[in-house]
Amino acid sequence: MDRRKDNHRLVSHRLSDEERQRILLTCNQPEFAALPPGQIVPVLADRGLSIGSERSFYRVLHANGQVHRRGRARPPQEPRPVPRLEARGPNQIWSWDITYLPTSVRDVWLFLYLVIDVWS
Q1: What pLDDT digit, counting tens, does each position of 78-110 carry?
Q2: pTM score over 0.70
Q3: How far is CA 63 from CA 22, 66, 92, 93, 120, in A?
Q4: Residues with Cβ < 8 Å from 29, sequence gap 6 or more?
Q5: Is residue 116 left, alpha or beta, with left meaning phi > 0 and alpha meaning psi from -120 to 50?
Q6: Which of 38, 43, 44, 112 could form an SS bridge with 49, CB 3.0 to 4.6 Å?
Q7: DSSP letter string over 46-90?
């Protein structure tokens, strides 16, 4: 049934359960297990097979929780911890910065290089 409010009509081009199962079985074959639908559908088309569109593949995979990180995509990495440094005396930790200072001449800049002891 159409899921819009107060619309009770049948959608004739909806995938059947057999077609959805065939898409899942195809995507889970060892040959296609690491490929996204954008690569599976053209390979099947080259072989003369038409199971469904790329969007239909994504829809079926999403409904079954299999659309995440197919292929060589890496899982998200944890952010690196920010280093926490502590100076307990002079000459232990130094910091630096470069600042660009405009001059009265167009497109001419001065560069201020600053290196400072964190303790001071």
Answers
A1: 999 998 999 999 999 999 999 999 999 999 999
A2: no
A3: 14, 8, 57, 54, 60
A4: none
A5: beta
A6: 44
A7: HTT-----HHHHHHHHHHTT--TT-SSPPPPPPPPPPP----SST
